[in-house]
Design brief:
The chain contains 15 helices and no strands. By secondary structure, it is mainly α. It is globular and about 60 Å long. InterPro entries: Battenin_disease_Cln3, Battenin_disease_Cln3_subgr, MFS_trans_sf.
Length: 399
């Protein structure tokens, strides 16, 4: 295997592991919280309500889980790019591994709701820190590794959900399944420290004090004789405010996407279908994840510069499905399957193309910082959509 193939494989595995722990652990936390609520119910009626749907985040406890899942990632992505350069990449990856491991252990041995939510928080911290760090890291390698990272993150949703379902369907408890999944942080460690082939000038353990603006070839202050060349580059690169043109469309895509996923999907039920309510919902989630995986892997085949087009199309999806919940005009569940798969395609394509064009259009001295800072876009969109999706979901349920 040549160096390019090793790095491509390494970033694919890093993307898989970074999002895999988050996907699997969140599903397990949901199941364990259901068990705890059932055991703590004061009456048979309470227990029946707690377990009847099996997949709906309707109680305040599950809303707290979603907030614990979103907010730590958002905070890390919003503030870390301004000081994360003081911590070498080797230390960052160890922190991601440690927090991912802690999330698995906390949830698997959880005996209280608070302990389960703390596990979700650790998973969110690991995912957020890992995403901004690995996106920044891609600027030190060949451009193809960004495609590998994107494909790996997309694969995490499909593979993580499938393996978790397969293990639990085979009779393993969520706790046992989580303990098996402790192999994921091990794979992340191996992928980063043993599979990637770093450039000779890359400093694995050195703290960088010169700030977020750094050259993408060497992790050291720029030489005096290069100042004229850098000035020319600075005129062409987008600064922090220039990143808004990337962050806003990405955030809007994810705002509409998670408004659909959190607020509408559970309500798109077709009683005449041969699939039960729970089965329809699981297929929605599966097809969404497959769509994300396909489009996040598409950078090797097609590149889309106008991400705002995908933002508009995703908002159209959200409006269409909201109206469909209200008036029930969609003919059957298979129509929704197509729309949800398309939703995943739009979200995944917006993500990977945003970072591709940031890496191409941002000046060399700011590229590393820009990749980290722009990662706040998707998390910001998700966080902003949550209150609206809860309100809309509860509104339709109350009717």
């Amino acid at each position: 295997m040549n160096v390019d193939s090793e790095n491509l494989s390494g970033f694919w595995l890093l993307g898989l592991c970074n999002n895999f722990a988050y996907v699997v652990m969140l599903s397990a936390a949901h199941d364990i919280l259901h068990q705890q609520e059932s055991h703590n119910s004061t009456s048979p009626g309470d227990a029946e309500m707690s377990s009847s749907s099996g997949f709906a985040f309707t109680s305040h406890v599950f809303q707290a889980v979603l907030l614990a899942d979103i907010l730590p990632t958002l905070v890390i992505k919003a503030v870390a790019p301004f000081f994360i350069h003081k911590f070498p990449y080797g230390c960052r990856v160890l922190t991601c591994v440690a927090t991912a491991t802690a999330s698995f252990l906390l949830v698997s041995f959880s005996s209280t709701v608070g302990m389960s939510i703390l596990g979700v928080i650790f998973a969110s911290m690991s995912s957020g820190l890992g995403e901004l760090s690995f996106l920044s890291l891609t600027v030190f390698f060949d451009g193809s590794v960004l495609g590998g990272w994107g494909s790996g993150t997309g694969g995490a949703g499909v593979i993580g959900a499938f393996l978790y379902s397969a293990f639990t369907q085979a009779g393993l408890s969520p706790r046992t399944t989580l303990l098996i999944m402790l192999v994921v942080p091990v794979v992340m460690t191996i992928s980063y420290y043993f599979l990637l082939v770093f450039p000779p000038a890359f400093s694995q353990w050195q703290c960088m004090e010169e700030g977020p603006v750094r050259n993408n070839q060497e992790r050291r202050p720029l030489m005096e004789e290069e100042e004229e060349k850098e000035a020319a580059e600075d005129e062409e690169k987008p600064g922090e405010f220039g990143l808004v043109k990337f962050i806003v469309p990405l955030g809007l895509v994810y705002f509409a996407e998670y408004f659909i996923n959190q607020g509408l999907l559970e309500l798109l039920f077709f009683p005449a279908s041969f699939l039960s309510h729970a089965e329809q919902y699981r297929w929605y989630q599966t097809l969404y994840q497959i769509g994300v995986f396909v489009s996040r892997s598409s950078l090797f085949c097609v590149k889309i510069r106008r991400v705002w087009i995908m933002s508009v199309l995703q908002c159209v999806n959200a409006v269409l499905l909201c109206v469909a919940v209200q008036f029930h005009f969609l003919p059957n569940v298979f129509t929704v399957f197509v729309i949800i798969f398309y939703e995943g395609l739009l979200g995944g394509a917006a993500y990977i193309n945003t970072f591709h064009f940031i890496s191409k259009e941002t000046g060399a001295r700011e590229r590393e910082f820009a990749m980290a800072a722009a990662s706040v876009g998707d998390s910001l969109g998700i966080a902003l959509s949550s209150p609206l999706s809860f309100f809309v979901h509860n509104y339709f349920c109350s009717r």
